[in-house]
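As practice, study what follows.
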Amino acid sequence: MCLQSVHCKIGDVVTTGQAPRITSPLRNTTYTLRNVNLRNDPIVFSAITDADTKVIYWFVDDIYLGNTASKRTIEWRPVTSGRYRVRAIDDRGRADSRTLNVELIN
């Protein structure tokens, strides 16, 4: 996995290009959600990718959330308050990550 790198070596293959750049969730932001609205108010993840990226794999705290086609979004509905690490890894092994704070209220 390569974080924000221009040249990444994965096995014997060198991958060039830009790593995905997460644009949502916002950096250093606390998302406050009401418990009753979790189904209606997800947190949307998105990233800007290099032209050669076809798929982005999304993880929250190293747990696989799902994948999207490049330029598509994915939704996440947290079930507990806390600090989470979000990662986006493209199909070339390039990655970006950021932390996210979630506060659930009644």
Notes: DSSP finds no helices and eleven strands in the chain. The two ends are 39 Å apart (CA to CA). The chain has one domain: 2-105. The domain at 2-105 is CATH 2.60.40.10 (Immunoglobulin-like).
